[in-house]
Amino acid sequence: MIGRSPIIRVAVASPLRTYLDYLPPTGYANTAIQPGCRVRVPLGRRETVGIIVSLEERPHVEHAKLRPIIALIDEQPLLPSDITQLAVWAASYYHHPPGEVFAAILPGPLRQGAPAERRLPFHWVLTPNGAAALTEQLGGRAIRQRDVLLALRDHPQGLTPAQLRATLGEVSDPIRRLERRGWIQRRHGQDVSQSEDPVSGATPPDLTADQLTAVSEIHSSVGYCTFLLDGVTGSGKTEIYLQAILDTLAQGKQALVLVPEIGLTPQLMARFRARIDQPLTLYHSGLTEKQRQTAWLDAQSGDARLIVGTRSAVFLPLPNAGLMVVDEEHDPSFKQQDGFRYSARDIAVWRAKSLGIPVILGSATPSLETLQNAITGRYSHLKLSKRATGIAPPKVHLVDMRHVRAQAQLSPTLLTRMREHLSDGGQVLLFQNRRGFAPILRCHACGWIAECERCASPYTVHPDRDQATMVGELRCHHCGKRAPVPTDCPACHDAAPEPIGSGTVRIEDALQQHFPNARIARVDRDATQRKGTLEKLLTEIRAGHYQILIGTQMLAKGHHFPNVNLAAVLDADQGLYSTDFRAGERLGQLIVQVAGRAGRHARQGEVLVQTHHPDHPMLGLLIEQGYGAFARALLGERERAGWPPFTRIALLRAEASQAELPMAFLSWARQEAIRLDSQCLLLGPVPAPMHRRAGRYRAQLLVQADSPGTLHALLTPWIHRIAESKPARQVRWSVDVDPCDTL
Ligand code: ADP
Ligand code: ZN
Ligand code: ZN
Question: Ligand 3 centroid to 590 CA: how many Å?
């Protein structure tokens, strides 16, 4: 049999959990067939696209059953071999269908088999010679050329041919002449600089001693190393990324920076642009499919040197990789929460290791997993303990909310401090992790609560769409269902139900009454739905258009608002008694991140944390000794309770519209796991903490193991069995390895 055509193993775009084997297409030279090339293949009666993962001698199935590939799409591998290997590894680690893993790696058109062509968008920009020529007199016949030069002088970021045409008419001839004279040149890359943030100090600052140590450790590392850059907010972590990136670019290598959300990082971008004299390539879900494809191919060709992207950018091919950075590494958005549930942070570390390059995980509030790796010495721990500007860290106070009459979460203490800070000309930032008007609508007479029956959860009260009335409609935050607000209690008909508790809208409303002269900015998902509104709002906040800022998570992440001197967490209690094992960690991170917004610029900030549990030992520890001590105490708790990072866990989730099916399926799965005689602990099945969602009943089974090896020794055969079983067909099920939460 040896010597005949190879067997082609393909990851096929489908939910299948195996690779499929094919024969070469008739008429192709075997040498043209390489792993990483896309192919068109038959699948049942239809035709689909797949990627060759390997060439084999022996097929999985009988040779006689093999069908030939229909066509080879790529002559040269689209995916370099390290990305193919990464995808194969990720499919096995996350126990996810390989075809879907490959699909997550490729931008849409390429996934569907589009040719791997780049049409490079570019801008014309003035060269130094061109700028010099402008001061000379250009002769009469060159008047059109002069117009182009003037237009480009006024737009240092450059203008596309279309933009030039729009203002000057047909100018292709003068452009050609100017290019030949070397007075203008093309600059490739996406147009990412709509909002030009003026940046103070495009010249690098003198590094602090801590920064110098960190930079030199990164600089002198050889090959793979994971650095935890553990620095309080404002300690100059971004400066260290910049130095490491510049270092990488100077060696002619590529640097990839992962951020939680592009829209929330305009300042990071502005600083990169101000200091790095190279085009910046963005890769995130806000781009059009075409832009994504271009960016992807730019990365794959090596032309894109500096790439900033969100989660999925971790899979970009980098032929010349030199550095990876994960900013705000603790952020839960690095973990995909549905479908292919990967952690971009963990994959970044895996990739850096296999590429033999450094990776920097930066945070003021590192995740407990990362911190533990630093403690055991697997990661190199770089600490920046002081703010780079020398301003003292903010003073944090707990506000005891017991027996306090607070309208819309605004305690008298908070209002007093707000008045003082506002009259001093500072901005005030308030954090409340609930959007809408109120989280609950309740009947005062009988206790009835308006619930979404599809989710068995209270509806949130929202103002009506043009905000003419504050109590406009009910919305379910889990399934999106909307309902009118009843005027009369449907249970007792004795009273009109009332909104209980406060979302950002209600707080904004109350603030306006307390501070009629202040301008208030609300930053949450409802207020920033339209594209561009968030960026605009953030710019206006920095420019000082608003005195009071009220918002959700969106407002707490990474921003640099120079004028905020007072920040407050309006209700810290939401995270104190949650059943989720990560709730404590999240609460600590949130408080520290909110606190980090205060007093970044001129003077020491003040932070108020409102709670009904001022004696809670963990809160006290966080506030008196800081995140490091708090996190170590949490690690102690995790170790005693056997939670990650001291164990490894996976969740098997199931849902169905019939109430008993998920539990029945999971009980069956549990029996199967026991039969496989594993060393893992099986906890459950139990109804999920949110046991109903969008009309479906949900349950889960937790698998806990003392090591990744033990965990995967069970998962591999078990998930395989489940996927092929009958009970699995009656429910929607999924497996979540290293889940971000157990909710
Ligand atoms: P982080 O990313 O840790 O929050 P940044 O890098 O944003 O911190 O730095 C916070 C502020 O301090 C920024 O305004 C930055 O320009 C400034 N900064 C950073 N390093 C220095 C330094 N060595 N000397 C003076 N200012 C610095
Ligand atoms: Zn009632
Ligand atoms: Zn619902």
Answer: 26
Q: Which two structure tokens, joined as six digits, stand for 562?
A: 């120079």
CA distance 511 to 430: 11
pLDDT (tens digit, 9 = 90+) per residue, 592-649? 999 988 876 667 789 999 999 999 999 999 999 999 999 999 999 999 999 999 999 9
Question: For position 531, what pLDDT does the model report?
Answer: 81
- Name the closest ligand to CA 214: 1
Q: How far is CA 432 from CA 423, 443, 646, in A?
A: 23, 24, 32
How wide is the angle at C-alpha 203 spanned by C-alphas 197 and 209, nearest 5°? 115
- List of long-range contacts for 420-426, beta carbons under 8 Å, 24+ apart: 421/565, 421/566, 421/606, 422/515, 422/518, 422/547, 422/548, 424/565, 425/563, 426/563, 426/564, 426/565, 426/566
pTM: 0.87
Q: For the chain, give the number of residues.
A: 743
> Measuring from each residue's beta carbon to the nearest atom of ligand 1, which residues come in under 6 Å?
205-208, 211, 231, 233-239, 388-389, 560
CB 612 within 8 A of CB 403: no
- Which of 461, 470, 454 minimizes the C-alpha distance to 510? 470
For residue 671, pLDDT beyond 80: yes
The values of phi and psi at residue 367, to 5°, are -65, 155
Contact partners, residue 556, CB within 8 Å, separation at least 6 = 431, 590, 593, 594, 597
Query: From CA 737, how far away is CA 446, in angstroms rounded?
Result: 44
Contact 374, 583 (CB under 8 A): no
The count of other CB atoms within 10 Å of the CB of residue 622 is 28
Rounded-to-integer distance, Cα 296 and Cα 313, Å: 9
Average pLDDT over residues 654-659: 95
pLDDT of residue 201: 46
Which of the listed residues 232, 238, 557 should we mutate to test ligand 1's pocket, taking the one with most ligand atoms within 8 A of CB?
A: 238
DSSP string for residues in 576-604: TT-SSTTHHHHHHHHHHHHHTTSS-SSS-
Burial of 429 (0-12, 13-18, 19+ CB in 10 A): buried
Q: Are 455 and 692 in contact (CB under 8 A)?
A: yes
Contacts (Cβ under 8 Å, ≥6 apart) of 153:
126, 131, 134
Region label for 11, one of left (φ > 0), alpha (ψ between -120 and 50) or beta (otherwise): beta
Q: Which residue has the higher pLDDT, 170 or 653?
A: 653
Distance 450 CA to ligand 3 centre (A): 11
Whole-number Å distance between alpha carbons of 63 and 672: 32
